[in-house]
Amino acid sequence: MHIKNVEFIKSAVKPDQYPPAELPEVAFVGRSNVGKSSLINLLVNRKNLVRTSNTPGRTQLINFFSVNSDSFMLVDLPGYGFAKVPLDVKKQWGPMMTAYLSKRETLRGVVLILDVRRVPSQEDIQMLDLLRAHDIPPIMVITKCDKVSKNERKRQAQIISKTMQVQESEFLFFSALSREGIDGIWGALEPLVNT
Ligand code: GTP
Ligand code: MG
Known about the structure:
With 195 residues, the protein is α/β, with parallel strands linked by helices. It has a single domain, classed as P-loop containing nucleotide triphosphate hydrolases (Rossmann fold), CATH 3.40.50.300. 33% of the residues lie in helices and 21% in strands. The protein has 5 helices and 7 strands. It has helices spanning 36-43, 87-103, 122-133, 150-164, 182-193; strands at residues 6-12, 25-30, 62-67, 72-76, 107-115, 138-143, 172-173. The protein has a 7-stranded mixed beta sheet, with helices on both faces. A hairpin with a 4-residue loop joins strand 3 (62-67) and strand 4 (72-76). Residues 36-37, 58-59, 76 line the site of magnesium ion. Residues 22-195 form the EngB-type G domain. It comes from Geoanaerobacter pelophilus. This is Probable GTP-binding protein EngB. Belongs to the TRAFAC class TrmE-Era-EngA-EngB-Septin-like GTPase superfamily. EngB GTPase family. InterPro entries: G_ENGB_dom, GTP-bd, GTP-bd_ribosome_bio_YsxC, P-loop_NTPase, Small_GTP-bd.
């Protein structure tokens, strides 16, 4: 994918705050701090388009980005599973996500991001269930692959595959540090965002 330009459109909580549903859209989801914002930055070749942080729970709103002069949208979703996020933010998360996943007609797929070093959580499993329940194709990305050896990656992929009940062949391996996997992820996204 050739990225000519990318523009932050707006942040939203409720459907009436979303930008008009006019462009094909792909969203990114996963636990707090897993690397959602980093992945988006790498995909569009922009170091700091989306704020990344060592503090989990940095992204608390739905953030819409328009790519290539309104060809399609990328959407950064707030992460789940971080204890220290303020209670009011946590309470808002469920309704905010359910509304987005069930009501966004232009949503073509969701990239579900998992950490190569972790056993997926209940919330990861529930997220995949939620996507399937709404007929939203999941794109499964295993990130932070630079943090483990090739052997460890293999072992972890087996564990993640078992826990998520997803075939290992469905995983795309990625690292924001080495940039490994970018082409594969675009390869999965391109057919979804092509109008
Ligand atoms: P929230 O918005 O808080 O939910 O987090 P996020 O999922 O958007 O994560 P973010 O992209 O902000 O990254 C969290 C931390 O992980 C940052 O310190 C990143 O630099 C780091 N990180 C992200 N991806 C990778 C990766 O592939 N490899 C390594 N080594 N670090 C990464
Ligand atoms: Mg983020």
